[in-house]
Protein 1
Amino acid sequence: MTTAEKYVAAAYLVVFLAVLAYVFIIALKLVRLEREVAELTELAARRRAEDDRQPELERVG
Amino acid sequence: MSAFGLMAASVVLIFFVVPDDADQGFSQRIFYFHVPIALTSYVCFGWGAWKALLHLWKRARGADLESYVAIHLGVIFGALTLLTGSIWAKISWGHWWVWSENQLVLFLVLFLFYCAYFMLRFSVEDGPARANLCAVYALFGVVLIPVSFLAIRLAQHIIHPVVFTAHGPRVHGVMLLTFCVSWAAMLALFATLYHVELAGKRLDSRLRELRELLA
């Protein structure tokens, strides 16, 4: 491999690694958003269950 | 998908089709990525400024976020321009960086100016004031783009090659085709990353609102 080929390979590798790093960061962000959506879904389900139970408690009271 | 296809096509053209440059030989192949990346960074900054103008002029909803995402990508493309340019400079001129070359320094100034955009954005509390300040800053920065672009043409020391002159391009045939495909690939990459990042940021913002509502 000549010096020119090494430098050209290095330049392309820099671009490739930058795109790869960006995709990796976006993937991490997607995982976080997915976790947040799951948490909020659970929170909303718990709220709904509490609201459904409320009239029963009022009737008993 | 189109970005991936164009990228693959440009890599094939660069390494298997395009001939070696008569003057610089194999190392000239950096040109097919370095110049499209630099031009795409100008497009990103220009798009960011356009969105900033829309925010100030028409109070377009979401224009501030769109401007921020475009500038963020512009800084990434700008960093890649500086890195690939330095590698090319080392093999062509024997130096990683030449401070006496105005065009290099002007691009660095443009890059640092937009890096400072983030310092401004994250030092002001979220709200209309921050959006207005950032929009004005992004509009000021766009003035540097033609200066940086023209500096390559107006420079007295012509060590930085000028490929596209007023009399047309200095490359022809397969070299010009390879350059056009590479630039299209970079623009497609920018468009893809712009939409992905924007969608992520919008989703993040809606989730925050939802969390506040449920709290």
Note: Chain B touches chain A through 28 residues (CB under 8 Å).
Protein 2
Amino acid sequence: MSGLQVVFLIVAIVTLFSGLMVVASRKMMHSALWLILSLLGVAILFGTLQAGFFAIVQILVYIGAISILIIFTLMLTRRVMDDDHPGVIKGWWLPALMAVILFGLLAGFMATWDNFQAMLNELPANPENLAGFGAALVDPAGYVIPFEVASVLLLAALVGAIYIAAERKEKAG
Amino acid sequence: MSFWRDPIVFLINWAKGLLDGIGWGPGWATTVGFVIGAFVLAAGAMFFVVFLIWYERKLIGRFQDRFGPNRLGPFGLFQPLADMLKIFTKELITPVGVDWVAYNLAPVLSVSAVLMMWAVTPFSKTFFGVNISVGILFLIAIGGLGELGILLAGWGSNNKYALVGALRAIAQLISYEVPFVLSALVPVMLSGSMSLVDIVEAQQPWYIVVAPAAAFIFFIASVAETGRAPFDLAEAESEIVAGYNVEYSGLKFGMFFVGEFLHAFTASFIFVTVFLGGWRGPFADEIPVLGLAYFFIKTFIVYFALILFRGTNPRFRIDQMMDLNWKVLTPLALVVIMAVALVNSLFASSADWLRISALLAVNLVIVFAAERLVRRGVKTTRPEVGSRQRPVASPDNVFIQPGSGVKG
Amino acid sequence: MLNDWLYVGIFALVSMFLPAAAISIAALLSPKKPNSVKNATYECGMETVGPAWAQMKVQYYVFALIFLVFDVEAVLLFPWAVAYNQLPLYAVIEAVLFILILLGGLLYAWRKGALEWL
């Protein structure tokens, strides 16, 4: 059991537990904070795969921007300070049972795949090649079309959100 | 001779030799070495804050034409120590209804976000924590974690003023992150790597000479990111009841201020690393300890400039701050990126001095054009004193009670 | 390279431990005399009225959203910036096009009044 496997197990358990607590928390704000913890866990998992750039981007975009957006949305739509209702519904055992059965079936089917029991592959010595990644993003034989379409997508998101928020502002004030 | 050239790395190698000699095995020796190294660096940073607080209070005093603290110790050097002792013994009043985890995590997160920035900066040619490949993006991401600390403080205090203060502080911080990130693209473009060690190594002329517009935007954005004057609306004592830290007392309150002073120093040395050449200077390559000295001299000069800003400028209003960010700094940053990219590419194959002068010229043109545009857009006309018609009370327009018998 | 991230992780834990230890020492050294007046929520010296909630403006949400769009744009530009020195001119033009599209979005937001603080 190498150190890397121990770190992976701990981080994976923390991430899964936080994911569970996102849906099982009593207060909405606690759900948002558990979500931040599970996103941090995913970032650490990226780090163990030696994808440093993606770990940092996960923290920068997901935790630094999207989580703050989610928290602002929470505060905008609910009286977030006195928000205290039970986190679970009455018949929660039935969906839980179905989820466990589904997981067991999936695991069973995947176990029939040959490489399920394979050992961890050693990653090459220097797997991160940011310059190559950047060159591929603007290479005409690479990913330049998705790159430009991504900017148009961001523009569409910006315009749509401003339009909706402007309507809301007119309704409010 | 090798001790005098580079004392810190000499000591580090000696300690590593000791650890290897114990004979645990490579994994454990490295891990314990990392823990000790991290401890020394983080504790060193926190003890350094004591000196920074003294420096700032003396300087602010001098700017305001008075002595700073000068009673305790020579030149008041023991004053921050006395303040620390006092604040350790103040009662930690916890108001009712706070969310225990959020309330207590917030000051810890604020300070640790700033401390983590010390792990990746190169203090000299050989002395740095780690050389990760995404250094500059790491600094920006960790700043985001600091903002989360403010949000937890505001929400966890169970106080509506703290919440409103925290929301305004976060709106300011996330807004100023945009020109910060965009202007940090320019050194990455010019040096070809995101790692801070590589950016310092590649600064043959310092990047402030090559891209002064980007340096200007980066500096203003980092002053705003630290929440210092003139951008300190979110936490000033006279605004919104001291903002998000109103319910904190004792050392928890002190931790927020330790974090803020440390963040100001950290912002100074990040600016020095990215634009002012870090540890570079004459003979810094051969004698690393000279590099450390140059680094600290440059950082203290920039820190002096930050304190000068605090002592001279009045506070911005929040709508002035947002206008400055979204209408001036962000478009300017985008234009600077495009201009630097195009000019550098067009001149890529010519001589170095030609390329650098072209970049410098383009940057200066952009700064002057922006200044002209901003000047035109700002309203500077005011009505003359005494020119407005003010209503004057006269018996005709004063309200008379019906039935009181007074005739108008 | 994994060692680098291990150091960063250890440094993060140490940097969270140090302030927490300092606060714990202060909690041990400080007097503890809670009473109901000291522990009440601060409202400029008056008694609190009603539950603690704050009216949140839509403007905060709009700023957070514009920040998100520009953050993602900057993140997409970073790998290009790392590879910049080896790229030919047309690759630079492609990135300039990317930036121009988003500059157009910022100008739209400006004209629509989404950047006013209200």
Note: The CA atoms of residues 210 and 361 of chain B lie 9 Å apart.
Protein 3
Amino acid sequence: MAEAVDYKVIGSRPIRPDGVDKVTGRAQFGADHNLPNMIYGRVLRSPHAHARIKSVDVSKALAMKGVLSAICGADFPGAQHGEVGGEGGGDVADVAKNVMARDKVLYHGHPVAAVAASSVQIAEAALEAIEVEYEVLAPVLDLDLAMAPDAPLLDEKCFTKNLPEPPDKPSNIAAVMNLKRGNVEEGFEQADVIVEGEYRIPMAHQGYIEPHACIATTNEAGQATVWCCTQGHFEFRAMTSKILDMNIADLKFVASEIGGGFGGKTVVYLEPVAVLLSQRSRRPVKMVMSREEVFRATGPAAGTHCKIKVGAKKDGTITAATAWLAYEAGAFAGAPMGPGAMSVFAPYDLENFDVQAFDVLVNKPKVAAYRAPGAPQSMHAMESTLDELARELNMDPIDLRLKNAADEGTQAPYGPKFPVIGLRACLEAAKQHPNYTSPVPEGAGRGVAVGFWFNVGMQSSAEVHLNENGTVTIIEGNPDIGGSRASMALMAAETLGVEYNDVRVLVGDTESTGFSNVTGGSRTTFATGMAVIQACEDIITQCKARAAATWGVDEDQVEWLDGQAVPAPGVNAELKPLSLADIAGNAARTGGPLLGRASLNAQGAGAGFSVNLADAAVDSETGKVDVLSFTAIQDAGKAIHPAYVEGQLQGGAAQGIGWALNEEYIFNADGVMENAGFLDYRIPVASDLPMIDTVIIEVPNPSHPYGVRGVGETPIVAPLATMANAIRSATGVRISDLPLSPPRILDALERA
Amino acid sequence: MTKVQVAASINGEAVEFLCEPQETLLDVLRGTLGKTGTKEGCGTGDCGACSVLIDGRLVCSCLMLAAEAQDVEVTTIEGIATDDGLHPIQQKFLEHAALQCGICTPGFIVATKALLDKNPNPDEETIRYWLAGNLCRCTGYDKIIRAVQDAASELAYEA
Amino acid sequence: MAKVVFPDHLLATTQGTHELETFAENFRELLLQLDERWPGCAERLAKCAVAIDGQIYQDAFLEPLQADSEVFFMQRIEGG
């Protein structure tokens, strides 16, 4: 149970243990690893957004000098069915087909074949020698057209799931979801004011700076080792074993340092291909994506079309709300329409609502998670509509939200009652923040919006090794994307009662540590932290037993205080405390090396709410938006390392601002992305942003020993509507479609 | 194609290497020379992860042919720390938590060195525009800017 | 009696039942009961997350149910 405590090290800002290697260039990222004798793999990608594959002939490529293997879809084992996990509930068969097309290509860039050769240049030349016969089909690129009953189909065997009656015709709508409560018709009748809005958000990419990269090596015993950048090497191992029909025990995955993921590196792309090429060529195969490949052929975030209707009384009480949310899944089913539907009204205590959500196939890359998948899109729609509602009611936008805010005991739209949450605390903090109470700068507009994410727990394992000198080494299985090693060390040091610098943290590979789910889902500090804490508690128990043996007393006469075994009150006070070094020094005599462990499926992840504020100025001649100030307020439960919590808030804000102002996939009529590079897929640069003010609210999560709530995903949710609302204030015009790029703004200003 | 022989100085060390005519300096640094501290984020000069100094000038090494390195002094991230330890820029990046995943960090540190060598007392706007060629997706730049400001003060104090 | 609620997208599995009340010691027992009622549904339901008295479980199994527990089936969340 977390109480208001003065922690010894938790809440401090020490330098991260892996920091020196990262500022000197020593740290090994995905493409930094090399093996002797290695060759290079390259992928042949579909030039068509939609086509049947009539034949693939790799023989001419294989015959070229320097080419050691060449494969295509037919070389993969028949795809097995099974759950891959995650919101989409995507079938392993779909992931397998996404890794290498079988009978159809479903997006421009879809892998069709691959070669491995002694140099990248030879591999590239070999791709050109591969002959593929396509029957080109018309691409389906528009979300609404894809949903129409007469739309060309991506998959003739796709029948809409979750309809009350099973459908008799296939459809591009892979699944629907409906959440409802009460009676919205009656609710709207009770309303004094009704506001509606329709919003479109484009497909966007997570934009991690490190392209996907891996190196796979195999042997004649059927064993394979893969180094790769990944958010989850255990999950990659599982996916690869299913796609290649290999025994998990024969697959070793080693996570390199990772240059960003944000959800986009929770899915395999290159790894099964590299393993298969390595098996065929009997050489280690290195594969690195180009930036263009990352844009065209990994997993961007779903574009959406959303419609919201909200009715409220004059005093701001919302009486009814409806949401219609259509999400692009891309080439295969699995858009995050479920979480989008569950989150859209989550911050509010509503009696009457109706949410309809759709998972829609289009000829674009298969979407993957991008921080809080589904929520930014649906909540942008709701938060923008609430902004208009506040204007209609002549009510302060924060007050409107306070009037309807969910709190402990409120029934969430997806069913359960919320335990203690920090939404009100964030709203109150926002209302009193100088960035809200200060006058809006001349010519600028101010925007507010709320964000939310469920956060998850899931499975983690940890070990604690007591070294002979009393220092401690933690081994866990979560790639360190944003300073998690530092947080693990802080939680271990706090639990053990030792100095931060006496703790080392290691991220083990799949053979060296126990199973862990991905670094993602805002779960690492929460769930892996919990495992680390429990492993430390395990070793404390063992240390107390060793101390008892050393002193010749019963175990229940020993306590643990400030990193030492001490006699319990009333027991022989002459006994000198035993430090970890003392206990380790005597370990051989008292029973051998000391090893603590824990593994768990963490329960009780606490939801994370946020409120964002922004001031924006719009140049009416160029349409350029200047972000004058941005404030991210979020409930972290307890900030283990405040600098890295602030970092999550600021990083997510920057991504959300980019998605709001400039980022979009621009497809031509043939389904080819026209801006597949950082020049024209414009993410925020240092000169685009001001300092990002942060406020960490701490409403402790009772389920975590130190009160932690996950913080990684919520930050991307609110910025979209915050910017839209700020621009609405600045210009007087509601621009409903993102991004709010200069041409769109100028167009809207002209038409106003 | 015949390889090109190049003699250059890299981080103060005389280096000779053979390269293909079309290989970039980035390819050679990371491949032939095994200096993987310089990163490839895009290969088209848009992200700055491959930033190096060429005779003190900030350059994207993915936009320069390896053959062009003949007789130049190349500084990479591996050459920023000295025998005395981390450079103040590196130290401040650590203290300010100015890195999360760390992939853009070598590029930022090299770019920052180029800035502070040229302009020891830049204001916030100057820093932001100088570093606009270095993309970071994790931090939102706030802590990076603060680290650079602090490094500038530290270097001024030491001067 | 524990209250068990199914979201709309599971109504095909529960043959239209949106809500029911029952006694069960733990979640495993509840699943067995539901499977008896609608044979084969346990497989589908086991793939759901479930909220028991406000606490969301991705993989519920032996979690105890109280006499007045509220159980909501929902879609699993992983995140990114």
Note: The mean pLDDT of chain B is 97.
